[in-house]
Design brief:
Elements (H helix, E strand, L loop, with lengths): L1 E4 L7 E2 H7 L8 E3 L12 H12 L5 H12 L10 E4 L2 E5 L9 H5 L2 H11 L4 E7 L3 H10 L5 E8 L5 H8 L6 E6 L3 H12 L2 H9 L2 E4 L6 H4 L3 H11 L3 E6 L4 H11 L4 E8 L4 H8 L1 E3 L20 H8 L4 H14 L1 E3 L2 H10 E5 L2 H15 L5 H12 L7 E5 L7 H9 L6 H12 L18 E2 L4 H9 L2
Parallel strand pairs: 5-15, 6-7, 6-9, 7-8, 8-16, 10-11, 10-15, 11-14
Antiparallel strand pairs: 1-2, 1-3, 4-5, 12-13
Helix pairs in contact: 1-5, 2-3, 2-11, 6-7, 11-12, 17-18, 17-19, 19-20
Bound molecules: pyridoxal-5'-phosphate.
Length: 473
């Protein structure tokens, strides 16, 4: 498979280069250069993942790919990897049985092994991954890269903004090659500092002199996106007929993987975006206008608190059948004015292919409570929004699958408030009460007494020094 940039101004490249560099040099995202031929799911999740990796990462030798899949799957607690559970008139595709209890584990337990091979093939001594996180990505990257040879990870998280469980998942994560550092500021400060580090020529030179390459593990990387197709293909095998899908959406990576699964032959009928109060993508699907120029809201589904969804650029490229001139125009309007409007056949195809809905924080808690009362299914806030949207869309006669993106035990304070109306500020105490009233086993409780391994805190201005110190440049 060869890859080209959505902006059309970068050379064609192979999967190894795209894996290592993430973003194309023209600022675009890598997409497959050729239309996708159908892919038949294998007999189980593992076989389907192996087939996908062969298709999308064919430059990596087969034994390396198989070994990566085996190592990734060994980190999952469920034998079927992503179980399907019934509740509230839909099926929940539970994507959260990996090490950090969110769907990002599916790709992030695999990507480090693919990157390590790509680095070796490119003669790079070590890949040094830098990531800014508002919560779930940081711990999933640390768990995924922990003790993978020739890789290191440094995660910057905001000193205020993550939940206590999310923070502990990072600062207590073992592994000699992984670190987390708090930034004095919010998520935007962390993100801006990491972006500035990637643009810092002096830093890149110091990395190179030390035989290292600075890279990132965010969801624009093809190694994050394409492995996610696997669970939609595997779900299609188990359902055995046409079905609709609803995906709680932030950066548009997960739902784009479902769209690719459909292109590869999965019989997905309607594909629906579920947004929280930061409903930029929901509005875009309904009107064709992408407008990020609005107030940023902090919600109880924090992993979807985002206004600029990077993977929408890949969707624009697909909708225009690879018209990079149009993609560049929209992206420059987004940068200059915070908004753009699509029209014509692209808008027609967008509306034909996607549906959308959203929920306020209050509606999210109502949905959690309704679903629990109706079917005794405990859905985390993100998943509950997906269920609410599924219920509100016009029926199609097909079964609906809601992507269950995180475990409810990651968000015990919201879960308890939704079920009882009571706010218990301490997350571990809230988890204890939630376990008592639901009769379910709490997950992540051992984090409460886990040793703190990463205590670094840095000012935004001192981020380059923190990077050099951590990676030993
Ligand atoms: C990351 C995340 C999302 C958003 O997924 P995207 O691929 O960015 O759209 C939704 N729910 C949870 C729990 C997440 O961690």
């Amino acid at each position: 498979m060869e890859y080209i940039s959505t902006r059309g101004l970068a050379p064609r490249t192979d999967s190894l280069h795209a894996l290592l560099h993430g973003l194309a040099p023209d600022g675009g995202l890598y997409v497959p250069a050729e239309p996708l031929a159908p892919l038949t799911p294998g007999e189980d999740f593992r076989a389907t993942m192996e087939a996908l990796l062969e298709r999308f990462f064919g430059e990596i030798p087969e034994p390396v790919r198989k070994d990566a899949v085996a190592k990734s799957l060994a980190r999952f607690r469920a034998p079927e990897v992503v179980p399907l559970k019934e509740g509230g008139g839909v099926s929940f595709l539970e994507l959260f049985h990996g090490p950090t209890y969110a769907f990002k584990d599916v790709a992030l337990t695999l990507l480090p092994h693919l990157m390590a091979y790509a680095a070796q093939a490119a003669g790079v001594g070590r890949v040094c991954v830098l990531t800014a996180t508002s919560g779930d990505t940081g711990s999933a990257a640390m768990q995924g890269f922990a003790d993978v040879p020739d890789t290191s990870v440094l995660v910057f998280y905001p000193k205020v903004g993550t939940s206590e469980i999310q923070r502990r998942q990072m600062v207590c994560c073992p592994g000699g090659n992984v670190s987390a550092c708090a930034i004095k500021g919010n998520f935007d400060d962390a993100q801006a500092a990491v972006k500035a580090a990637f643009a810092d020529a002096a830093l890149a030179a110091r990395a190179k002199a030390a035989g290292c390459l600075l890279s990132s593990a965010n969801s624009i990387n093809i190694g994050r996106l394409f492995p996610q197709i696997c669970y939609y293909l595997d779900c299609a095998r188990r359902i055995g007929g046409p079905f609709d899908v609803v995906v709680p959406t932030g950066n548009f990576g997960n739902i784009l993987a479902a769209h690719y699964a459909w292109q590869l032959g999965a019989p997905i009928g309607r594909l629906a975006v579920a947004s929280n109060a930061n409903r930029v993508v929901c509005d875009f699907v309904r009107t064709g206008r992408y407008d990020a120029h609005r107030e940023f809201r902090i919600t109880n589904s924090p992993s979807m608190d985002i206004l600029v969804s990077s993977n929408v650029e890949r969707l624009l490229w697909l909708l225009t059948k690879g018209n990079d001139v149009e993609v560049r125009t929209w992206e420059s309007q987004l940068k200059a004015e915070g908004a753009f409007q699509i029209g014509g056949y692209a808008l027609h195809d967008l509306k034909e292919r996607f549906a959308a809905g959203w929920a306020t924080p209050e509606e999210t808690e109502t949905a959690i409570a309704d679903l629990w009362r109706e079917s005794r299914y405990l859905a985390d806030p993100h998943t509950a929004i997906g269920w609410k949207v599924a219920r509100e869309l016009p029926p199609t006669g097909r079964p609906t699958v809601v992507a269950a993106t995180a475990s409810p035990w990651k968000f015990p304070v919201t879960m308890l408030r939704a079920l009882t109306g009571k706010t218990v500020a301490d997350e571990f105490a809230a988890a204890g009460e939630l376990a008592a009233i639901t009769g379910q086993m709490p997950a992540l409780a051992d984090l409460r007494s886990a040793p703190i391994l990463h205590e670094a805190v840095t000012a935004r201005d001192a981020v380059p020094e923190a990077i050099c110190r951590t990676f030993g440049f």
